[in-house]
Amino acid sequence: MGDILVITEHLKGEFQDITFEMLGKAKDLAGASGGQCIAVTFGNMNEKSGELGIADTVVSVSGSDDFNPESYAAAVKSVVSAKSPSLVMVGSTSMGMDIANSVATALDLPTVSYCADMSASGGGLSVTSSMYGGKMNVVTEVSGSAVAMVLAGAFNADAGKSAGSPSVEDFATELGAGKVRFKQLIEPEAADVDITQSDILVAVGRGIGSKDDIELAEELADILDADLACSRPLVDAGWMSKAHQVGKSGMKVKPKVYIALGISGAPEHIEGMKSSSTIIAINSDKNAPIFDVAHYGMAEDLFDVVEELVEELEY
Amino acid sequence: MKIVVPLNQVPDLVEDLEVDASGKALDTDDIKFKLNEFDDHALEEAILLKESGSANEVVAMAIDSNGADKMLFTAIAKGADKAVKLSGGNPADSHQLGKAFANALESEGFDMVFTGVQSVDDRDGQLGPIMASYLGAPCVSVVSGVSVSGGTAVVHKEYSGGMMGEFEVDMPAVLGIQAAKQAPRYAPVSKIRQVQETASIVEASMGDVGSGSGSAVASMAPPAKGSGAEMLDDIDDLMDVLKDKGAI
Ligand SMILES: Cc1cc2nc3c(=O)[nH]c(=O)nc-3n(C[C@H](O)[C@H](O)[C@H](O)COP(=O)(O)OP(=O)(O)OC[C@H]3O[C@@H](n4cnc5c(N)ncnc54)[C@H](O)[C@@H]3O)c2cc1C
Ligand SMILES: Nc1ncnc2c1ncn2[C@@H]1O[C@H](COP(=O)(O)O)[C@@H](O)[C@H]1O
Questions:
Q1: Is B94 helix (H, G, I), strand (E, B) or coil?
Q2: Which residues in chain B touch residue A102, judged by CB atoms under 8 angstroms apart?
Q3: What angle, rounded to 10 degrees, do the helices at B235-244 and A302-314 form?
Q4: Which numbered atom of ligand 1 lies nearest the CA of B142?
Q5: DSSP state of B185
Q6: Any ligand 2 atom below 6 A from CB of B119
Q7: What DSSP designation does A209 have?
Q8: Helices (H), B35-172
Q9: A136 vs B contacts (CB less than 8 Å)
Q10: Half-sphere exposure of B161 (CA within 13 A, CB side)
Q11: For labeling, which of A120, A174, A207, A261 is most exposed (least CB within 10 Å)?
Q12: B70: left (phi over 0), alpha (psi -120 to 50) or beta
């Protein structure tokens, strides 16, 4: 294993957690084999390179602070060509998805997606990916150079956070053909509920079956003085508003108690709720991945359980 | 404007999934396949753009396989104008698959390609950027909300916490659709039957899919049941936990 390139990610001038999660792991893997851990930053983020103390070097790509799928991918492509790392780590995130496979295709490298674990193996790398919505782990042996898309939350961010003063190398690069132009950042609409502040959340998933039946969960939430949350499909179906969505493209929550009703536990959902103090999952599928992160579970029909529970609590 | 939507069939994840005898792949003998949910959103967004007058043709495209015909006829029943089925090759990895679609797209012609943001099976979010690279077209993934004027599209790309980036994209382009403006429509069985009798599916070649550069899967297994959840037997147990954790 040689050098590892970590593509940092930032939003509104702050490095995102995924950056530190990848750096911690990269340092570990590179260190074991005498390789370097190289962080790539964009725009003015080089001014914050002090936060990337764990990296051996920072390669600073000039240009805009605002993410652009085309120009960021073009820049990463030239950095990878110039540095020939044995591994490129990219977040399995909205931004990472635009970068990873453009770079991999242009440079003819394989991509391993959804990396939940990585370890040195022989001269290469053994990568475990969480697939099929978390129901299967797939192990891939990587020998040559590759691009790894790292699952958010898979590695400890604290392990990658250390202040320092890595050397910063300015990297002049091409920025693509200008076919994609950033216009603006859009903040979420103001909402009547802030589920990141809730003590107790009753979260509803697709298992609820219909919009009308959400009422039942609402009833339980009322009794428990809890707020209602949900998984993404309910928002996409127009059954609940975006402010209630927990997960990768929704809110990150950590209530004292999180009650998941009919939620399968896809990695994108877990990313948003796994830090809850107590997670209680009710799902009729005993193999649902949600039971791997929940503290307590009931493999039963949610309607039976919630109706009975409401009755019990009311009388 | 012409929008092509590649459609993929994936295992229904609600089912019990098992590994086959090779220990490297899913046992697909007894499982049900269905349209990848994000592809349904991609198709819906394309049909909505047609209905609003921004697009004039929607083409559904799939790899020839068991169930592909039914999936494509259903797409026509929902509002696609044409269905294309790719055969004559056996793409072994996502680079080869991307090449197959890129070849077919070049002969079909397109202004936009809407893929789903990802397949829920095993090649997460790769195909769009891969075929865009082969086609020399720009690609934006995790898109919800597309509007079109002239030769450009304005798209909203979702980040975390409900934030979005707005981009202007020159066409032809590839977009990975996360969610359509409204929930995907449903095609009644009677309509699908009628389409099956009247419409036809165009066959196209995958062409030269190249040498690929995939990585080899070493093994596949359900995640080890670690500590996992403590399973509760009845409502009394559940009440105890809720009390203990201060929820009641
Ligand atoms: C880029 C990207 C970002 C995403 N962001 C998010 C996000 O922020 N948040 C999010 O949640 N998802 C997100 N997703 C979607 C995610 O991949 C899953 O599709 C989603 O989390 C599934 O939601 P679900 O668990 O409610 O539905 P499903 O996966 O369909 O699960 C429904 C569950 O209900 C159970 N069930 C059915 N009937 C009953 C019953 N009567 N009683 C009990 N249980 C029942 C089933 O066994 C099943 O496990 C994202 C996906 C992508 C690609
Ligand atoms: N075998 C396939 N046939 C048709 N479309 C596909 C196929 N694989 C992937 N796609 C399309 O590409 C998107 C992303 O897939 P993936 O790269 O597998 O996550 C899917 O949502 C589909 O629109």
A1: helix
A2: 129, 132-133, 139
A3: 60
A4: 1
A5: P
A6: yes
A7: -
A8: 37-51, 68-78, 94-108, 127-135
A9: 17, 19, 26, 220-223
A10: 11
A11: A174
A12: alpha
Residue whose CA lies nearest to ligand 1 atom number 11 = A231
User: Whose CA is closest to A17, among A143, A151, A114, A203?
Assistant: A151
Q: Which residues pair with A227 in a beta bridge?
A: A201
The residue of chain B with its CA nearest to that of A241 is B162
- Residues of chain B with C-beta less than 8 angstroms from the C-beta of A249: 142, 158-160, 162, 178
Q: Is the CB of B117 under 6 A from ligand 1?
A: yes
CB B230 within 8 A of CB B239: no
Cβ–ligand 1 contact at A130 (below 6 Å): no
Is the pTM higher than 0.90? The answer reads yes
- Give the nearest partner residue to B215 out of A94, A110, A285, using CB atoms: A110
How far is the C-alpha of B131 from the C-alpha of B100, rounded, in Å?
9
Residue A102 CA from chain centroid, whole number: 19
Write out chain A residues lying below 8 Å of B124, CB-based.
92, 113-114, 131, 149
Beta bridge partners of B144: B179
B150 part of contact set with chain A, CB < 8 Å = no
Q: What string of pLDDT tens digits covers the 315 residues of chain A?
A: 789 999 999 999 999 999 999 999 999 999 888 899 999 999 999 999 999 999 999 999 999 999 999 999 999 999 999 999 999 999 999 999 999 999 999 999 999 999 999 998 888 899 999 999 889 999 999 888 999 999 999 999 999 999 999 999 999 987 888 999 999 999 998 888 999 999 999 999 999 999 999 999 999 999 999 999 999 999 999 999 999 999 999 999 999 999 999 999 999 999 999 999 999 999 999 999 999 999 999 999 999 999 999 999 987
A247 lines ligand 1 (CB under 6 A): yes
Q: What is the C-alpha to C-alpha distance for residues A111 and B94, in angstroms, rounded to an integer?
A: 9
Describe the crossing of helices A69-83 and A94-107 by its angle, rounded to 10 degrees. Answer: 50
Distances (CA, A) of A79 to A58, A105, A151, A233, B134: 11, 15, 22, 38, 20
**Residue nearest atom 7 of ligand 2, based on CA coordinates:** B8
